[in-house]
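Sequence in, structure out. Go.
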Amino acid sequence: MLARFAQFALMAWMLAPLAAAQIPSSVKAADPDLPTIVTRMMETQKQNKDSSRAIVVRRDYQLLDKTYEQKARVIANVTYLPPDHKQYEVESSHGGMGEKILRDVLDHETEKKDAKDTARREFSGDNYAFALAGTENLDGRKCFVLQINPRHDDKDLLRGRVWVDAENFNIRRVEGNLTKSPSWWIHDLHILMSFSEVDGMWLRTFTQAVANVRFKGRYEMVARDLEYHKVEQNVVQNRAPKRRSAIVTGAALNP
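Output:
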């Protein structure tokens, strides 16, 4: 049952630090209307996808129980090769059954998805009804806060909120609950994702999934990016990528 929780906890990744304090404010007359915000957001998502480059992400996965005690940890290097190839190598791991759960998450994250499967997870007008809830400051950036409600019954869709940067229309944060429970064992699955700029690309850098597991209580899985490495675009599949300079919290670092 914990494996079912972990497998679906990172579903939102295919929709990929915690956000700072938010200061609510009202929507000003000079702000664009809702259709314009949604259109610009969708255009920006496409531009980000088209401009993506090969990269290796060193990522820390942890599984915590209801007392916030770490039950398992996996550090892995995940290679993304546009347009749709992903692979990973585990750097270190521990945790028994919890470790297996996190490895299952990595398997699920890196499995190949077809175009139809990807499209049904996108933040688009086909998948969601949007409502403008106001504006907030997030990490010092003004954001439009959009309420999202799924247009169809799908286990991969969220009901919650999206924070859209008011200047560049990138999605900075997503938070909400899965529309459908992924399993009888799992309920109240809550997802939080944060995004930021990394070496000219817009990437998801943090994911938190919290759920109540029947007869077990609260479990939490956290995945946090540690550093990034450039990789040649012509790296072949199933071959360890050649690393370049690393980027850690925006600073250059020799690997």
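Check: The chain has a mean pLDDT of 81. Residues 155 and 180 are 5 Å apart (CA to CA).
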